[in-house]
Amino acid sequence: MRKLLFTGSLIAAAIVSQASFTAFAAPADDKLVIDEELEMITRAKSVEGHPLPEVISGWHFRTPETRAIESDSFQNPGMLGVEQGEEIWNTVEGTEGKSCASCHDDASVSMKGVGAAYPKWDADSGKPINIELRINKCRVENMGAEAYKFDKGGQKPLTAFIKHQSLGMPVALDLAAGDMQKWWEQGKETYYRRTGQLNLSCASCHEKNQGKYIRADHLSQGNVNGFPTYRLKQNKLISLHNRFRGCIRDTRAEFPAAFSDTLMGLEVYTTWRGTGLSVETPGVRQ
């Protein structure tokens, strides 16, 4: 009898799991215009080789209230992180007596386009490098300062500030540089690999079931053009690798370290999937 009850429980759980994906709602038919001035590209035709015909920003899958918050810089709480990042940009640190501005001057000029083009190939390490790792490289090699630990110190706000300088610019990675294509392929394999006790992959939610509801959350395509993103339920900026690890944790699998080869490949691939969408940093999500 116990065995039968246990088996029945597993079957019921599987049915509930499948049913949780059944409700569907189309992404909102709306336009994202920041401060009534800058219209964002939130829907774009997919590039060659993309599994979906159109790429859609996660903004379209949020509630009207959440969408309204992102459209107004004064309401967007993520902008507090951007302002903090600007202060860090101009703060002298390290043995060399330099700040970010010492070398790069006005970020609105020198950093424009950076957020749309990273991750990039880094010849020194022989790997892709994202903005967080680029910041650490500059801190150690040029400023004589300590590298930030993951999600600590000024890493998130400074990354948000730098990416915000590309607000509205379309995402476009250079996969021809170095071995970027190899890392793209590695990231693709990770994206489709099922893991954890729930046997889910990134694609299980963000490709096969995008547009549906799971536990009252509207599943987006999982595009990453708004990171670091302000998540209302966590009441803070969330970095991309933090979100990767959170999703993997939710499959009840052991998650990789931040900036590991696994997650760097995944960042390359997921960023490419959003090619053509505007950089929205800081995006606002539920």
Please explain how this structure is put together.
The chain is mostly helical and 286 residues long. It has two domains: 34-76 and 177-285, Orthogonal Bundle (Cytochrome Bc1 Complex, Chain D, domain 2); 79-164, Cytochrome c-like domain (Cytochrome Bc1 Complex, Chain D, domain 2). The chain is 41% helix and 10% strand. The protein contains twelve helices and eleven strands. The protein has helices at residues 2-19, 64-71, 78-89, 100-104, 107-110, 114-117, 131-143, 155-164, 180-192, 202-206, 240-250, 261-273, and strands spanning 33-34, 38-39, 43-45, 54-56, 120-122, 127-129, 213-214, 217-218, 229-231, 236-238, 284-285. The strands form five sheets. Strands 10-9-11 form a three-stranded mixed beta sheet. It has a two-stranded antiparallel ribbon with strand order 1-2. A hairpin with a 2-residue loop joins β7 (213-214) and β8. α3 crosses α8 (155-164) and α9 (180-192) packs across α12. It is globular and about 55 Å long. It starts with a helix and ends with a strand. The model is unreliable at 1-20 (pLDDT under 50).
Could you give a short description of this structure?
Helices cover 41% and strands 10% of the residues. By secondary structure, it is mainly α. The protein folds into two domains: 34-76 and 177-285, Orthogonal Bundle (Cytochrome Bc1 Complex, Chain D, domain 2); 79-164, Cytochrome c-like domain (Cytochrome Bc1 Complex, Chain D, domain 2, Orthogonal Bundle).
